[in-house]
Known about the structure:
The two termini are 36 Å apart. The chain is an alpha/beta fold. Strands 1, 2, 3, 4, 5, 6 and 7 form a 7-stranded mixed sheet that branches. It has helices at residues 6-23, 28-49, 60-64, 79-96, 100-112, 116-125, 129-138, 143-169, 278-281, 283-291; strands at residues 186-191, 209-213, 219-221, 238-241, 249-254, 259-265, 295-296.
Amino acid sequence: MQRVSVEDSVKQLNQSADYYAKLRPVQEDVLRTFQKVFECQTRLADGFAGKQLWLPELNGSSFAQGVSWLAGQDIREHGSLLHESARQLLPVMVEAFPLGDTFEGLARTFDSKDGMLGNSVSALLAGDLNTVRTQAEALAMDSGLFAFILRSIAAPVMMALAANGAEMLQGQPWRQGYCPVCGSAPSIAYLSKRDNIDLDSLVGGGGKKFLHCSLCSHVWRFPRDLCPSCGTNEPHQREILHVEGVRYERAEFCHQCKGYMLTIDFREVAQEPNLLLAPVALMHLDAIAQQKGGKPIYEAPWNR
């Protein structure tokens, strides 16, 4: 699998930000804010991927049973990369977000308290939200904001691991709605451009469905008729929500679990958008889905 250069990735990010800002000017401030963060993460991930990172072997039997490749791995093994990520990313967040003092104070805390950053990220990735809340309270910080900062810092490390391990996962079947690399929820889905060779791509008018991980940015094939949240494939449980005349951008809403997945049909767009930024650009669809009682499969600052 050919890896896209970091400069091409950043160029695509910037072009997407310009396109969406022109398309929906009311969203420009939010788009530009996250554009800065995503560019920093992209450059960090590229640098980390060039290092000699230790990668665990893929346990084929566990993977076949739905256990993600990095499940149970301790992120603290990459503690130096986490600190490098924090050192470069937090100043960008100070500039990008209105809570600059919060980010500056947290940067000092991570530098002064040995092991705190690694322990906090490890707890978050393990789903130990009680520990995350306790740590946030000790810092007099909102737990949701603290979790967002931790995920932002961890993302470049996880992106590097996913990029370096992608070849290991090639050809391995995976039908789960969570990431085969790290187990995180998808942030967005897309339907690929037309491919008339694979008959499966013709179902429903063409386009294979792929999910994009909200943490490590890994992309994996997923059945078009399944809900990524609950796995139902009942057609009457699925509703497509979109702005009138813009069906290629939509929220796929599941009436069974109330989860919804933002989706872009690449067959209908001239240029494929950057998948880090695209969920931010579709926040208007979050509002539409949530008015119907929907819950985002991946909760982010722009969809709460």
